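dude i think i finally got it to work??
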Amino acid sequence: MDHTRPTCLCRAIGRRPPAPGDAGRKERVLDAAVAVLQEHGYQATSMDRIAALCGMSKKTLYQLFESRQLLFESLLVDRLFNSNLIDLELQGATPRERLSFGMRHLAAELLAPKRLVLLRAVVSELSRVPEIATFMQGYFVDNSRVFPLRSWLRRLGYDTILTAEELDTASEHLFGMTVGLLMLGDLAQCKPSKTPEARRAFIESGVTLFLRAYPLPVPASGSDS
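look at this
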């Protein structure tokens, strides 16, 4: 992997618009790549194996993804990092209700079974393939909108009382006290997954603790804009 250009994927994918049918075929390829990665590990996840599993020729596969590196980076970006919640309208009358609403949606997105399967496979490779960790770290540094927490905290008014660095730290605390702990439990499989009701209660208690540590000096506006 190219350690110095973690965002090269976006530029590479942007070289040509997807042809009709490309999107569906790319999804098949990514599904196959997850299965091969899970069974054989990163080093043995070859384009031959991926092409065979998804039932297409290597020529077609290389038309969709120009290299194994770009395929794997696309897998990480599309299946692990992308979030559809950046512009989510946080519903509720209080900061606690609005943050709890957002964190419940984030939990549903990040704890989806397909995402957890891929994350387990990637985590198992981190110690053997350092470039995976390098790419992931670089991606998060260069893509501040990957996850929506900072955006949500700004909309609640935290950017008026916290520096940019403090806002990053607050976002990490909020994630760790809520979704992060749920994700760790599901990844480690050290205890049964929480029921939807227990997950909701856990998130709300984490948000309550977060707001005690990071109190807003004035009531948040009723608008998310």
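The CA atoms of residues 10 and 200 lie 35 Å apart.
im so relieved honestly
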